[in-house]
Automatic annotation (TrEMBL):
Protein's recorded name: Aminoacyl-tRNA synthetase-like domain-containing protein
Record key words, sorted: Aminoacyl-tRNA synthetase, Ligase, Plasmid
GO molecular-function term, one example from the UniProt record: aminoacyl-tRNA ligase activity
């Protein structure tokens, strides 16, 4: 049995994660959620004074806006769509018959206007663009959402439905790159406060296909994405628990995020993988929070 499977099994045995029969789709216990709530308070403690506007979207987004985002160009393998039955009574009868004999009943499901949110910040850009020109001082948002990615895995840190807490900054190049740097510094401080050894390294997104290789190399060469890595299921391949993304003016241009003088805003987002951070804590400090080091408990629960 490999190490990954055994950590997942221990999480199931302890009840922290609850098996649903699907890899990457888990229930969470009260104790697991308590760690996530405590860590979110810690995040707020580090960023609350910045005055970010809090917005919460549900875990589904407007399909037309998702299409406009270009997600299907870059990550078609990860996307999840919501389909529904839209037929007549006659169609219903044949649907039930299909299910009864174990045939594929999903082939006649029709796409709805909703897709599953792939990253917490996706619904934000068109929302802010609709408000009109950005203030000269820029804008800062605090988001949290369940996100879907079709990447089933036995690695408990790679889930299909997981939560991302994000800060998103819009402004000038200098403004948003300073924002990103300040969260890299804070990320290191926060993880130190909860007793986790971390490194930050340059990274790239898993762009699809052969053309994607070039996009990934370009992203790396330009230092557009960094990750804060913590060993969870492997020390050779530590897990990305935060990411720090500079989009240049790509999202600004795509969505029409402009200043009053018509110039295009730059954007950056900083994402915390909340389940991954909780898993890193359970992995390093043990499966029972009552037995965690005093300093870690103090940082999380005061
Ligand atoms: P990875 O390289 O591990 O796939 P990513 O580059 O896809 O990570 P981002 O797209 O930057 O990650 O997402 C922001 C954060 O969300 C990540 O830093 C991570 O903490 C978390 N995250 C991403 N994918 C998953 C997943 N499948 N399960 C749990 N958390 C995830
Ligand atoms: Zn983002
Ligand atoms: Mg990924």
């Amino acid at each position: 049995m490999d190490i990954q499977t055994s950590f997942l099994d221990r999480l199931f045995e302890s009840g922290l994660l609850i098996d649903t029969g699907i890899d990457g789709l888990y229930g969470r216990s009260g104790q697991f959620e308590d760690v996530i709530s405590a860590f979110e308070r810690l995040i707020y403690g580090f960023g609350g004074a910045d005055g970010a506007e809090a917005i919460r979207f549900p875990p589904g987004m407007n399909r037309a806006l998702f299409e406009a985002s270009g997600y299907m160009k870059s990550f078609p393998q990860l996307a999840g769509t919501v389909h529904s039955f839209c037929g007549s009574e006659f169609d219903h009868t044949s649907l039930l018959k299909c299910m009864e004999v174990g045939e594929d009943w999903t082939k006649d499901q029709e796409a709805t206007d909703i897709v599953l949110t792939p990253a917490a910040c996706y619904p934000l850009y068109p929302t802010v663009a609709k408000r009109g020109p950005l203030p000269e001082s820029g804008a800062l948002f605090d988001l949290q959402s369940y996100c879907f990615r079709h990447e089933p895995s036995k690695d408990p840190a790679r889930q299909q439905l997981f939560r991302m807490r994000e800060y998103v900054c819009m402004g000038t190049k200098g403004h948003v790159t300073d924002f990103r740097q300040s969260w890299m510094d804070r990320g290191l401080e926060m993880m130190k406060a909860v007793g986790l050894d971390v490194v930050i390294d340059v990274a790239n997104d898993p762009f699809f296909g052969r053309a994607g290789k070039m996009l990934a190399n370009n992203q790396r060469d330009q230092n557009l994405k960094f990750e804060l890595l913590i060993p969870i299921t492997s020390s050779a391949n530590p897990t990305a628990c935060m990411s720090f993304n500079y989009h240049q003016d790509a999202f600004g241009a795509k969505w029409g995020l402009n200043f009053a003088d018509g110039s295009v805003a730059h954007t950056a987002c900083v994402a915390f993988g909340l389940e991954r951070i909780a898993l890193a804590l359970f992995h390093h400090h043990g499966l029972n929070t009552a037995e965690w080091p005093q300093s870690v408990r103090k940082a999380l629960w005061g």
